[in-house]
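cron nightly-structures :: item 1 of 1
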Amino acid sequence: MRRDEARPSPTDERPAAPGQTEEPSGVENGAENRTAGDDVTAGLDHGLLEHFGRRLLLPALLAVVALAGLVLWSDGQELARRLRGFPLARLLPVLALSLLNYGLRFGRWQLYLARAGTRLPLWPSLLVFLAGFALSVTPGKAGELGKAWLARELGGGPARRVVAVVIAERLTDLVGMLLLVGVGALFLPAGPWLAALCGALAAAGTALLTWQRGATWLLARARRLPGVGPRVAVLGDVYRHLRALLAAPLLAPALVLSFLAWGAEAIGFGVVARAYEPAAPWLAAVFNYSFSTLAGALSLLPGGLLASEGVLAGLLDLQGHDAAVAASATLIIRGATLWFAVALGLAALPPLMARLRRGNGGRAERQNLSAGA
């Protein structure tokens, strides 16, 4: 698309993804060019939030099913008694550890944006990052690719660079959680072997993702596929950015931040578990939380719903915990992690949309003045 061509309004746009083409930047600070005839603000809130509201329907349904399943499994009355008996003072450190998780991951986000050449001021960058939590409750967290569109609209430059950042975030999250599973497994009789296996899988996965020859081979084959072939150039560009983000100089700090971030939430689960069982091992808490979170991520279900709850409650049951205790601990930690993050993401949307409206309105005014001249 040429710079002087009119583009669809943001209402009709979807967040840029690896399979989408991307237009060059035509306005200062990386914002895209729009003609004076485009209504760049009309429907912006409605379009994004309407589609977002629809995406929340499935997670809400899955959350209800997960809650119903835990209630039926554990005896609703006993579960209610256990929930009422949880000391609220314990919830404060759990939420603080969740905030630590978000802070460490925001540091990684900033690190990746800088490496990708995406320039966003701190506050807009934080708003986009937090909004990603609300967008993450989609199958496979695919909605998080909306962060690429948001960053582009705020003047962060080409969206495909941020697509690579989002993918790198998710990949390092998976590796970090796999390493935590290995550490937590040390409380088991076969713990050292499981820890070695997790470490080997993490190393092999990282090497595979940065294997350029293999990626070149896959892209060459993809070029022959109908509907995919014309987009291989875009996929190749995204992979080029992704490979730079996963290169050795950046990979180590990113993995450390991921390990510490998810480790903080695992410790938070330990705080919850020890409220019910004071002698519960910390390593067991790390293993249970990390393994269930990893299972939820690999399930590709929105927010890992059903999978994470089922695996976590099941692990606690296998380790001899009362069913009501297992269900109560599961509900509390999911509320203090997943749903706490979603609430923060929803809170970030109004100021983010207001900033988008101001930015798009300013561009429209400049373009109208240019047209009048």
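cron nightly-structures :: done
Confidence is low (pLDDT under 50) at residues 1-47, 364-373.
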